[in-house]
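User: For a reading group we're discussing how well predicted structures match intuition. Take Putative glutamine amidotransferase domain-containing protein. Before you show the prediction, I'll give you the sequence so everyone sees exactly what went in.
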Amino acid sequence: MTKSVLLAGESWTSMSTHIKGFDQFPTVTYQNGATIFLNIFKDSDYAITHMPSHEAQEAFPSTLDGLLAYDAIILSDIGANTLLLHPDTWVKSQRTPNRLKLLREYVEAGRGLMMIGGYLSFQGINGSARFRNTPVEDVLPVTCLPYDDRVEVPEGFTANVVASHPVVEGLGTQWPHLLGYNEVQLKAGATLIATVPETGHPLLVAGTHGRGRTLAWTSDMSSHWLPPEFSEWEGNARLWTNCLDWLTADE
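Assistant: Thanks. Here is the predicted 3D structure of Putative glutamine amidotransferase domain-containing protein, as structure tokens, for the group to look at:
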């Protein structure tokens, strides 16, 4: 039976100004960081819907029934404001549903939610992801810091797997290096699966809320924190598949 998964975020638009002597011109580039992840599930038991950040502001479901069309939802590099500020609210000053509250209800109803790290995940760059003290933080197995939570590790680090769990089944302990992560705090009762060796900060955490399951992966799913050595590792596909299997498992 095919299971439906919504991946929101993991896209961005870059604007550059090219200055060539007296002359200058701008260019705009759209980039999708989800390509490798999506390719993993092309021929699988999962139907992945990718909703890029610029689409999610309006198209992300605004009803619980709309969310319940998905067996699991992944938020990756998409800040709270994108989900809070529907264009009808931002442009027209109209009341709209609080989609962070709906995500909490979604998990309580028995579905799975995962947050993947990045510059606009957890608390994010300059604190601008803003998931601290939100209904989404309520259901995650970790707590966000009240300030910029990025930790850059240019020399690289390898995950320290500290617990046996279905999410890391078959992956062993020798993982490729990562280049950064969001610092978070472990919640009481959550299962710490993997850590950052030098700091002990959580890297992979599982938890439950209501009838649902949640996961936090504090590094990225693409560059720059997740380098080619990791994305090309055979365990990369196994890791993400394990995550979805666990999030959507029937109890």
